[in-house]
Amino acid sequence: MKWLALILTLLSLPAWAEEPARLDLGGSALVATGRGWGGPKPLELRLSLTKPVPYRAFLVGDPARLVIDLRGADLGMARPQDLFGADLAPAIRWGRNGDGWSRIVVELPGPYRIDSAGQQARAALSQITVALAPVSAEDFAPRPSATTALRDLPDPADVPPPSPDDRFTVVLDPGHGGHDPGALAEGESEANLVLVFSLELRAALQARGVDVQMTRQDDSFVNLERRMTAARQAQADLFISLHADALPEAQAAGATVYVWNPAADRRAAEQLTLRHGRDDLLAGVDLKGQDDALTGVLMDFARVDTQPRSERFANWLISRMSLMGIGMHGRPVQAATFSVLKSPDIPSVLLELGFISDHDDRANLLNPLWRERMVKVVAEAITGWARDEAARATMLRQ
């Protein structure tokens, strides 16, 4: 089979590749954390990055400045003046600083000390927080000068490993497989096309620090219920089923994202209760011994949270596709009752990469350059959505 060699090659690739962390300007800020009582206010600099990096923070004088060095970070085209709270500092500058390093310099409104500096890490994101407390001129203890600050720099703080409970897990579900090849066109099968794409996407996500599980990694058949069970056992934060269907010629083309149809919730609850054990319906909740009415209520309650999260991810995905010039269906987000979207407790989408029956879509799926671009789109949508969800969770806790 002509795809077999490629699949075996992809399986042998390392699970990671070096990619710089990127600054998420929308999640970063300089904030005042108290009153100044006639002098400078306590400040806190928060830097949101797409993954954890080694860093170091120190003060220099003449004038008083906070310097933060980041190793393996790309500050991109973000402008310091666009940082939320930039007006709290006389000036902020940043840019590259030697091989593999970036530097952020915050001119301070007076003498300060670094009260604390830390990095909170998850697999798909990181936040570095530096707290500054105002001090008297006599207590200001910077490095002797900006020149000496460039020598004998402090060692960068190690990247804290994410705890197992904090890992961000995505389950990729390549549709069909085994005795079910899916759609067929011009000697190609949907099952093989989406498997190759999924393997490439897995490598890109793992390079970004995301934990990736797959419902299948070869040309094997996995029934629909087992795909959902695998996602729940993996404690997935997101489930993505990948397809490339076929329709009569000229009826459909372009990528499409499907989310669960809320109107079908009651019927889905009944079907899930019949097909699954009651300890396999909601992660962390054993429904054994509970009647159907209570089971349905709890599943509906779970969907109150997961349904809007699924819809937000769908919007992230089509936004990235639009920015990258990926051809989309006329209605790029649609509601459906596909079995793989039924999980009440896991945000889930079904992504039609294109239609194998369409000549252009099929050519795209066979084109490594197009797949590379689409992989980047999906990977960036996943990590962007993960950061957004983490920020929402933080606001809810507050």
TrEMBL record:
Catalytic activity reported: Hydrolyzes the link between N-acetylmuramoyl residues and L-amino acid residues in certain cell-wall glycopeptides
Residue ranges of every copy of the MurNAc-LAA domain listed in the record: 228-383
Top-tier EC class: hydrolase
Enzyme Commission code(s) on record: 3.5.1.28
TM regions (residue ranges): none
Listed SUPFAM superfamilies: Zn-dependent exopeptidases
Pfam family, one: Amidase_3
Signal peptide span: 1-17
Keyword entries, A-Z: Hydrolase, Signal
Keyword Hydrolase carried by entry: yes
Stated name of the protein: N-acetylmuramoyl-L-alanine amidase
Taxonomic path: Bacteria, Pseudomonadati, Pseudomonadota, Alphaproteobacteria, Rhodobacterales
